[in-house]
């Protein structure tokens, strides 16, 4: 099947598309299984990593796929469970998206193409060989879809060193751009974490904790979740995403892969809240909503601090707050992006590097 003759991914048989993907996997001698055909195997693999980023969790992949469909995009999950000597050794989030102009894009659920995640005990030579096959697979996929200008990334996943993915991309001629991510080291004591926070934030956390009644939702509670969803709608002034995405996030709370921190006023009205997606090792700031009439009072400060406490209670290692934008970044960030990332930095203990790669695939 020639991808260039698709009238749209929505009209192409998904089975035929996945069959062609499987052919390319075999062509580059990559031992792998497609997540859509083996969802349980992906879930089982999640428990075998010493550090599993939220972005590699099946629940986050499902959320991003559903979010991508909110704008009418057609997305197909082609994430791969990687094997070595016939045993599962890695996970690789991948997807195909059909854009409105008919172009097909390769990504990791709408974002830059992420590197495969490997188990810590896998030998370096084996990682190198599998990464080589993964990149050969991307070359085939890029030529098949005619998406030859790839954007890839490498972020923090428990290790600080540059890995085989980074090295081989540079050897292929990729151009790299430095990005920055904000993290909290949850192995520090709460007092140490608080000492790293912006001084003004510390006093706001103290005062806010006295103003608001705090609610931590860590298990099934549909009534409070519905309140949070309504608050988000009121603050945004419209529905920004589908009911499916909200349901996926609520399901993570039920399954202990997420939690909600809520703040109530003296009248028991929910005035603010933040939802956080987690694995066993990492937490991620996902979405928040606060009553705009109360922006002069400490809301987000309290939610962030309580979220850190909840992550520590669960034994997580790192909290990923989000990207730190700088004025000289390319493309230039908006004033809102700069303001939000400056606010987030007030809670961080670390600014860690991430890398964005541009790679051109030669036609074949």
**Which value, in Å, is the CA radius of gyration?**
21 Å
- Strand and helix order: HEHHEEEEEEHEHEHHEHHEEEHEHE
Point out poorly predicted stretches.
Answer: none
Q: How large a portion of the residues is in β-strands, by DSSP E?
A: 25-35%
CATH topology assignment of the largest domain = Aminopeptidase
User: What is the makeup of the main sheet?
Assistant: 8 strands, mixed
Mean pLDDT over all positions: 94
CATH C-level class of the largest domain: Alpha Beta
Shape, principal axes of CA atoms: globular
Give the distance, in angstroms, between the N- and C-terminal Cα atoms: 16 Å
DSSP summary: helix tally: 11
In total, the number of domains comes to 2
Structural class, by secondary structure, is alpha+beta
The CATH architecture assignment of the largest domain turns out to be 3-Layer(aba) Sandwich
Helix content: 25-40%
Strand order of the largest sheet: 8-15-9-14-13-12-11-10
Strands, count: 15
In brief:
This is BioF2-like acetyltransferase domain-containing protein. The protein is α+β, with helices and mostly antiparallel strands and 364 residues long.
